[in-house]
Amino acid sequence: MENLLNSENKDRLKFLLTYPSFDQNTYDKRIQELLSLDISSVYSSGKVQLHKISILGKGSVGIVTLVRCRNRYFVLKIRRTDANRANMYDEVLYQSLANSIGIGPFLLNFSENFILMEYIKGSNILDWYNSKNSTCEKILKCTCSILQQCFHLDRIKLDHGQLNRLDKHIIISNDGTPTILDFETSSTKRRTGNVTNVSQSFFLNGPIYDRLRDSLDNDNKQVIKIIKDYKKNLSPENFKKILNFLKF
Ligand SMILES: Nc1ncnc2c1ncn2[C@@H]1O[C@H](COP(=O)(O)OP(=O)(O)O)[C@@H](O)[C@H]1O
Ligand SMILES: [Mg+2]
After folding, report:
1. Where are the domains of the chain?
2. What is the DSSP letter of 56?
3. Which is nearest to 99 in space by CA: 113, 84, 115, 111?
4. CATH 1.10.510 is right for the domain spanning 123-243
5. What is the pLDDT of residue 183?
6. Cα radius of gyration rounded to whole Å, the chain
7. Which fold has domain 2-117?
8. What ligand has the least distance to the C-alpha of 161?
9. Which of 66, 86, 196, 219 is 20 to 30 A from 236 (CA-CA)?
10. Cis ω before 178 (30° cut-off from 0)
C-alpha cells in the first residue's frame, strides 16, 4: 500500500487533506494536526476513488481513509473543507457517548479537523444481506443486533439521525457483526428515532425488507401499530414486540 506521507506523494496528500479546495494555510495546519495524532502513514487504499487516491469512503462532511498509528491500522475521518461545520467536536462527543455503551467504531483520538478511530473491515449492509454466504439465520442474528444497538441508543437518548439510510451507516464484518457508523448528525436534544427508523427498513419497505420478508412474522398493519406503540413509549416490553417480528 502506498504511503501518502512519502515525499514523492506530496501532491496527492495535499489534495486529500484539503479536499475539495486546496489552500496552503489549511494544509500546513492539518499536517501539524496529523503529527499531533502520531500518524505515521496515510494510505491510498480502499474501494472509493478520489482523483488518484483510493479511500474507504466519502460523505458530505468527511473523507475516510486508512492510516497507521503506533503500529496499528486505524481510520482517519478528515473534515472536508466545504463541510457544513467548523470542526469535528460534536461528532466526537456523540461518538464517545455511543462508545460508552459499546456502540460505533472505537474513538482513539481527535483534533479540530480529524477523528482517528477503529477500522471496521466489512461490507455494506445491502451487499452482505444479499450475499450467498449470508444464511437466514445469520441475517436474523445481525438484524436483531442492529435493533438492540438502536434500542440502547434510544435508552440513552442519543438519536443517530441518519438511520433511515442503513446502507450508508452500517458496516457488517465478515463474522456478521454490525457496526453503526457516522455520528455527525447525532443529537441528544431531539426525540430519539433509532429503533423506529431502522424498523421501517427492516419491516416495512425497501431492499432489506425484500430480503427479510420471508423470515418475518407479521403483517403490515400490525407492524405499523407496534412501531407506533414503541414510539409513544420506548419501553423494553414494546421493544420486545418489535424483536418478535423476527422468526428465528
Ligand atoms: N470506522 C470506519 N471503518 C471503515 N470504514 C468507515 C469507517 N467510518 C467510515 N467509513 C466509510 O466511509 C464512509 C463515509 O463515512 P461517514 O462517517 O459516513 O462520512 P460523512 O459524515 O461525511 O457522511 C462510510 O459510509 C464508510 O463506508
Ligand atoms: Mg455519512
Report:
1. 2-117, 123-243
2. S
3. 115
4. yes
5. 98
6. 20
7. Phosphorylase Kinase; domain 1 (3.30.200)
8. 2
9. 219
10. no
CA nearest 209: which of 137, 155, 129?
129
The phi and psi torsions of 105 (rounded to 5 degrees) equal -65, 140
Helices (H) and strands (E) in the chain, counts: 10, 12
The pLDDT tens digits for 29-62 are 999 999 999 999 999 999 999 999 999 999 999 9
Nearest to 195 by CA among 149, 141, 241, 229: 149
Could you tell me if the CB of 57 is within 6 A of ligand 1?
Answer: yes
C-alpha cell at 86: 467548523
Q: Report pLDDT for 218.
A: 77
Cell of 50: 478520489
- DSSP E strands in the chain: the ranges are 2-3, 39-44, 48-50, 53-55, 57-58, 62-69, 72-79, 107-110, 114-117, 123-124, 170-172, 178-180
Is 117's C-beta closer than 6 angstroms to any atom of ligand 1? yes
Average pLDDT in the chain: 96
| pLDDT at 140 exceeding the cut of 90 | yes
How far apart, in whole angstroms, are the C-alpha atoms of residue 199 and residue 191? Answer: 16
Q: Which of 49, 76, 171, 180 to mutate to test the pocket of ligand 1 (most atoms within 8 A of CB)?
A: 171
- CA–CA gap between residue 226 and residue 241 (Å, rounded): 7
